[in-house]
Write a structure and sequence with these properties.
Elements lengths: L6 E3 L4 E3 L5 E3 L10 E6 L5 E8 L6 H15 L8 E9 L11 E11 L8 E12 L4 E12 L7 H4 L8 H10 L1 E2 L7
Antiparallel strand pairs: 1-2, 2-10, 3-4, 4-5, 5-9, 6-7, 7-8, 8-9
C-alpha cells in the first residue's frame, strides 16, 4: 500500500494528506475564498481548512477555545448546554510540518447544531486544529465535524444510515501533522 499523497490546498500554497473518500465541496457549491471544504462521500462528516484573522488579544493556549466558541456562535449553538469543550492539547513543533507556526493546538468538543437552518438539531463532535501564524496575522483552523447523533428530522438523517468507513481522529491528526506551507504569498 502506498503512502497517501498530500493534497494541494489554496491553489497549492498549502498541502496536507486528506482522509480517504474526501470530496471537494467546491465542485458542488460555492465556498468562500478563505476556506477549503471536504465532505466524506458516504457519511455526514466534513473537514474545513480555513484562514482567519489572527486574534492578538487571545493567548495561544486559549486560541482553540476562542475559535470553537466563535464557530458555536456561527452555528447558532450558543444556548446553555449547546456546546462543550472536552479537551485542549498543544501539538509539539516536532509533530507538525507547518514549522512557521508559533504554536499549534487541538481541541475536541461537541456542539448541538442544525443544518441549513433546520429546526432539527444534531450532536456533532468537533475536532479543531489551530495553527497560529502571528507573522502573517493569520490563524489556520482545521475543523473535523463528526456527527455523534443525527435527529430523525434532519436532512442528514438518510446519510446516518450509511456510515461506511468513517474518518477517524487518526485521519484528522494525520492531516494536522502533514499541513505544509509552500507559498507564504498566500497570506498577502
Amino acid at each position: 500500500m502506498s503512502a497517501a499523497q498530500p493534497h494541494p490546498l489554496f491553489g497549492g500554497a498549502l498541502s496536507a494528506v486528506l482522509p480517504h473518500s474526501a470530496t471537494d465541496v467546491s465542485e458542488l457549491r460555492e465556498i468562500p475564498d478563505n476556506q477549503e471544504v471536504f465532505a466524506h462521500s458516504h457519511t455526514d462528516q466534513s473537514l474545513i481548512v480555513e484562514l482567519v484573522e489572527y486574534q492578538s488579544q487571545v493567548a495561544d493556549q486559549n486560541a482553540a477555545r476562542y475559535h470553537f466558541e466563535d464557530i458555536a456562535g456561527s452555528n447558532k449553538a450558543v444556548e446553555p448546554g449547546a456546546f462543550e469543550v472536552t479537551d485542549v492539547v498543544p501539538l509539539s513543533k516536532s509533530e507538525v510540518s507547518l514549522s512557521v507556526c508559533s504554536s499549534a493546538w487541538m481541541l475536541t468538543g461537541t456542539q448541538r447544531v442544525s443544518k441549513f437552518n433546520e429546526e432539527a438539531r444534531n450532536v456533532v463532535t468537533l475536532h479543531l486544529g489551530v495553527f497560529r501564524l502571528p507573522q502573517f496575522t493569520t490563524d489556520v483552523l482545521i475543523t473535523f465535524n463528526d456527527p455523534l447523533s443525527i435527529s430523525p428530522d434532519s436532512s442528514s438523517a438518510t446519510s446516518a444510515e450509511t456510515h461506511r468507513e468513517p474518518w477517524t481522529v487518526l485521519d484528522f491528526r494525520r492531516l494536522l501533522h502533514t499541513l505544509t506551507l509552500h507559498n507564504p504569498g498566500l497570506f498577502g
